[in-house]
Amino acid sequence: MLVDLHMHSTASDGALAPAELMARAAEAGVDLVALTDHDCVDGLDEARDAAARLGMAWVSGVELSAQWQGHTVHVLGYGFDPAAPGLQDALGQVRQGRWRRAEQIAERLAAKRMPGALEGALAAQRAAGGDPDSPPARPHFADWMVQAGHVRDQGEAFRKWLGAGKLGDIKQHWPTLAEAVQQLRGAGGVAVLAHPWHYGFTRARLRRLLRDFAEAGGRGLEVVNGKQAPEQVGLLGRLSIEFGFLASVGSDFHHPAAPWMALGAMTPLPSDCQPLWTDNQFTDAVVMHAQ
Predict the structure, then answer these.
(1) What's the pLDDT tens digit per position in 15-51?
(2) Main-chain dihedrals φ then ψ at residue 232, nearest 5 degrees
């Protein structure tokens, strides 16, 4: 069974609409799929209906932003009730925070002689098929910066202006790690820590993060994120066993032009890990469709 439990659509910062994303996942041979947009469940109904038409098993998903010791980390949630009032309230607050963050990014760019960033990012978001009522994300600012001639490409935009520790890295609007986990659990979901290697932590700090995540009620670890290096996957696999985490896999797909995050194309999960999709709470939430 080919499983891909981490991907993004135009409902957040992805390039494809939810239904088109599901079609591409089916073409890639994915059997079990989850749409995990950033702090947003707006695309889930469309994705679920498309998965049903295409015969893929489907589970509700989301990727929540959270604060941990001054850093932004991401928590993937699966099998929750998207209409749960507590989760809806939390997502509404984060949405407001994302608008404030977008405004602050624009103000900071304007101070660096790059005016009009918010309007430009919104235009880039609309051009990509995104929801015009949703706050633009950093990739939309990066697209505008390229179009306006401020940088050569998205990579330069993130390296110089938008990436971790840079001008656009604004964290104060996210819930704490424990709050994000409890929001998911309160909606009946399973919490999984996303792409642990992306945070650039030392191994000692990563272990502290995993300890705190487990104490907060986190159940899983994304051991495989796209075409991750086998040695990284191996270490995360060992950590998942040590901390008693279920192991998850996902492409982290955003755009067809990024082959290292191609749908359904991930480094294999170590055989000694317990896959997330074998857990009873997770499997009870999966909607099965006949091929």
Answers:
(1) 899 999 999 999 999 999 999 999 999 999 999 999 9
(2) -70, -45
Taking the alpha carbons at both ends of the chain, their separation in whole angstroms is 12
Angle made by CA atoms 126, 131, 137, in degrees to the nearest 5:
75
Strands (E), the chain: 3-4, 32-33, 57-58, 61-68, 71-78, 190-193, 220-225, 246-250
Within 171-283, strands assigned E span: 190-193, 220-225, 246-250
Q: What is the pLDDT of residues 115-158, one digit of tens each?
A: 999 999 999 988 887 777 788 989 999 999 999 999 999 999 99
- Using DSSP's 3-state secondary structure scheme, residue 180 falls into helix
Q: Provide DSSP, 1-17.
A: --EE--B--TTTT-SS-
Q: Are strands 57-58 and 32-33 parallel, antiparallel or unpaired?
A: parallel
Residue 277 CB: number of other CB atoms within 10 A?
21
Which residues have CB under 8 Å from 78's CB, separation 6+?
5, 34, 59, 60, 61, 189, 190, 192, 276, 282, 285
CA dihedral 78, 75, 173, 40 (to 10 degrees): -30
Closest C-alpha to 14, from 153, 159, 125, 179: 125
Residue 281's identity, in one-letter code, is: Q
Size of the chain in residues? 291
